[in-house]
Amino acid sequence: MFFCISVWVVKALGFGRFHFCLLAITGLIYANTAIGITIISFVLPAATCDFRMTSSDKGWLTAAPMLGMVIGSYFWGCLADTKGRKLVLVSTLLIDGFVGILSSFVQILPIFMACRFVNGFSIAGAMGICFPYLGEFQQTKYREKILCWMEMFWTLGVILLPLFAWAIIPIQGIRIESGSFSYDSWNWFVAACAVPSLMLGFWLLTFPESPKFMMECGDYDDALACLKSIYRQNTGDDPDNYPIKSLKEKVRTISVASQNSQKSVRSLSMRKPKDLKRLFGEIWVQTKALCRPPYLKYTILTCLIQFGLTTSYYTLMIWFPELFNRYEEFEHRFPNTSASVCDVSGIVVDEAAADPFDCEKIIDQSVYMHTLIVGLACIPTSLWLPLCVHKLGAKFFLIFSLGVAALVTFGLYFVQNSIQNLVLSCIFEALTSLAISLVFCVLVDLFPTNLRVMAAALSLTAGRGGGLIGNLSFGYLIDINCIVPIVVFSAFLLIAAILCFFLPKTGQEALD
Predict the structure, then answer these.
(1) pLDDT band, residue 94 (cuts 50/70/90)
(2) I need a surface site. Which of 148, 301, 338, 412 has the fewest CB within 10 A?
């Protein structure tokens, strides 16, 4: 008996142990990307003296991983839609982990920037693939809710990062010096944050490839074996009792390389010119499909939404610890004095002329506490989303979170003390991180299996391009006139919220 890919193939698996383990590892991968993306926010103030960084240097350092993400997003997305989700996820995690540890030993700023570029290049792949990989194993009735629980793991990453930083960076007795080589507490922090990538990469080796992707490539026997294994893990029953006995794919969605050859697209070698040519042909055909109806509209919408959202989120979240640090320094020098974010930045820069590289400055403990509070503030929205997404819809949450975040961003201009800055930072992080997860949830439903990861990658490329531009501009403007980036980022979020009105309702149908 033959079945097309349908809701019954996935429904027959049940829902149990395998799905919870899958949520755990993809969730932890997502949490790891939160750490990898924002780690620079704590490295900036800690490593300023060792690297003799100016504000301009800091802007370039925060931009380096963003540039890596711009290039890496589409590169890994293309590979994931042609070679497989699991292969690419494992590769990105292991590269991120090894290069992260290597970067902790680097003593030259341009080389350190290059390492962080590679980290951004690899982590972009993991971020863009974990949602489609998780979603392709889910039944329709569970899919949207399960994907929304990923937001809680992002919150976990945002909480763990300041805890790691607080536990390691203030330690004074672990500095190692030998000639021109030094290995301080911030170096240990960078290395510690790279270890989870390695652990997750090796753990992921025990998980299967997406059966939807295998069927898309024409590997029906492998897909059926994978489905039987999942059935056994969920039910404890004999895999031979899995009710689906054979699989037959719809010809219209099968990959070009698999249609034109007996060879599956997954088995094409990147070392053989003939196979590589066919692989690039597959990527080109899928890219053209994204840029034509019926997917063109959704491709443009998701790219524009990601651009506006990511430009604002990553720029401000990477610089928030720096702003907290500047507020603490200002309030220590001028107690009981109110000042805006722009005023604080300008005054502190003027006063810091005697110590331009902050070699005598120690990061105040409250900076870690403030960043931790920002992470903890995300817990209520992280719980609200999966519990209410079926009632209100992902589209409602997107519009609400982006609209309010735009108002909060504009409100930063009116901040007069560190407490107000902290409150607005908490609201901003809670709402924008919610929106980032929701964009990925929506993407899983908007595109078919053979285009899903590539569509996510294309939108990520647009978003990281915006993040790169935002970081470069913010690094220059924060010390001169910060009202311009505040207004621009607020406008970006508002426009993204308006664009969400044109998205369809999702989560109601089985994945194509």
Answers:
(1) very high
(2) 338
What single-letter DSSP state applies at residue 503?
S
The yes-or-no verdict on residue 5 having pLDDT over 70 is: no
pLDDT at res. 84: 87
> Is residue 190 included in any domain, yes or no?
yes
The parent domain of residue 49 ranges over 5-214+289-510
The CATH number assigned to the domain holding 427 equals 1.20.1250.20
- What pLDDT is stored for residue 353 in this prediction? 53
221 in Cβ contact with 253 (< 8 Å): no
Phi-psi region of 53 (alpha: psi -120 to 50; beta: other; left: phi over 0): beta
15 occurs within a structural domain: yes
Q: Does residue 120 come out as left (phi exceeding 0), alpha (psi in the -120 to 50 range) or beta?
A: alpha
For residue 360, give both structure tokens: 């005598």
Sign of the torsion formed by the C-alpha atoms of 202, 204, 207 and 211 = negative
CA-wise closest residue to 137 among 286, 253, 21, 30? 21
Give pLDDT tens digits for 234-276.
Answer: 888 888 888 888 876 544 444 444 444 445 555 556 666 776 6
Asked if residue 81 is part of any domain, the answer here is yes
Q: Give the total number of structural domains in the chain.
A: 1
In the numeric block, which tokens belong to residue 359?
A: 């070699």
